[in-house]
Specification:
heterodimer; A: 251 residues; five-stranded parallel β-sheet; three-stranded parallel β-sheet; B: alpha/beta; TIM Barrel; eight-stranded parallel β-sheet; globular
Amino acid sequence: MLIDTNANLGPWPFTPVPDRPARAFAAHLAANGIRRALVSHLGAVFLPDPMPANRQLFAAVRRTPALLPVPILNPALRTWPEQLAECRAAAPLRAVKLLPNYHNYNLRAAHLTEFMAALAAAKLRLVLNVRLEDERHKYFAMRLKGVPVKQLAQFLERFPKHHVLFTGIYKGEVEQLAPKHENFSVEISFCETTNCLELMLPKFPARRLMLGTCTPLLSTRGEVDKLRGAHIPARAKELIGSTNAQRFFGL
Amino acid sequence: MRIIDVHTHPVFGTKATPAQLQRWIDHGRRHHIVHMIVLGDVLLFGPTPNAAQLRHINDDTARAARLFPDYFTAFCYLNPLLGERAVMREVERCVAQPGFRGIKLEIANNAAHPCMRHVAKAARTFNLPVLQHSWSVVNIRNSQHQSDPSTTALFARRNPDVKIIMAHLTGIGFRGVLEAKGLPNLYVDTSGGFPEEGLIEYAAEHLGADHVLYGSDLPIRENSVTIGRILGARISAADKQRMLFGNTARLLNLPLN
């Protein structure tokens, strides 16, 4: 059984990717061996207030237990505390996701102290998205880079008691962070080179890697096959494919 | 399942020993890859190698094809800016050796440059396809060296009797597919970039599955991912098999049973 830690419902404005209803989305994942997925809504990436998209997410997954909602919040908005409360009331939550580059704030921002304290009090995990697309292929009018690795490092130093899951992070960025920081895990959809996992494991423990497909922006089958086809021990595949996500999200 | 990878660089960074090449073969076979096209360590000396540097790169490529002729086919790497005599001399030198079946171009110049006529002449003379590195310059903004899909398509239109492979489907993107549309001598390889959803289907729809060739860009990309994006695409099983094997076998006339 595989668990996808980075999947998305909703439409994407820049490329013609499938926008599947929740049940069809779960069936698509299941056809690729994924039985459970942590799912956000792409509408929250671009809306000035992410809550309409989060409400769509909660409504969509209500009758699809394989899809576990991860709402996207924007802590730069003054109203985040009430939005967090609304999300917690809408469904059993395991985590929330942040998109600092899309939502135009810096990870050094002061308001994150209160936000992280609120997550800790609510026993919620933080998923921090570094990028959703290869910067070279973005829509021409959208000049947006991934969250700088320096900011990620400062964030990890600032909140040493929080263990964060980075999604959309490059292998090279993981290698920059790994020597100095242990309070983060990595979702692997944007980690790629030939024999990627085989090369990563000596430098980064399998217990901190998790399968993620970035569906529907990336090929689900391609990302699943990255793990299935990896020349690494079966135990490591099990950790990356499901065990780590079960532990991290309390599934 | 049998797969031919039309876009690989098994000689990369350091001179490949026979043992290292054998490891790449073992790696490929684990992924059902029965044959690889070796394009050379094309950036070893920067974007515009001189004649001696080209010979060095092509000799390394030739060595791989000579040591493992059943597994590696070689492409001759060129710098078109060196001029007609240098281009013709290097291609003639390469094709005199066993295993060379194509020409590889990287980022010495973009594919609209007038010097590309020398490449077309060599391709015509020796009946070789030309694989041109291509990437949309909309964001990377280096149109002097990078071949935007529009320039690679222009090269194909100027030389309808030359078979051309526009490399890097993800790099050329949806616009690149449309640039390539309607040019029977132009093929697209699927190497490079992350497995962005929808591009395989889009290429099959607009170019025809028989004009899409599987490529990985090994050792930069992951074979399981680059193959998986085709196996997971919403196209027929027959079209997948054409992309993964048949198209390249036919284009290069590879003697694979």
